[in-house]
Request: fold
Amino acid sequence: MDNDLEQFKAAQVVGKLRHKRLANLIGCCCEGDERLLVAENMPSDTVAKLLFHLAAALRVTFYIAEVLDYSNTEGLPPYRDLNAYKALFDEDGGPRLSCFSPNHAYRPSEYLENDQVLTIKDRF
Reply:
């Protein structure tokens, strides 16, 4: 008996359980190599995705706090209008705080150098 079939049979046994905190098995079918398990529809995402998004949000928050602390230590004026559009990601997926929002047409002149808008990391 192959491993897939063993897992399928184990799922059938567990699928007989009924509880409000289980994604209950509605039905199953096994025909030749084809196996089908039908469970209740769970319209929201998995915990893995939720935890990934939470971890990513915490990482971004930590790095933004780090750059705000750095800016304060260097005596720079506090960020005005800090919002999610000013948190950008570099090529490695690392968050960087920008002095402008990419969705706005304006570019503060004090942050222009050779017609390029610079991030905090680029300035210091």
Notes: Residues 47-123 form one domain. The chain has a mean pLDDT of 76. The chain has two domains: 3-39, 47-123. The longest helix spans residues 47-73.
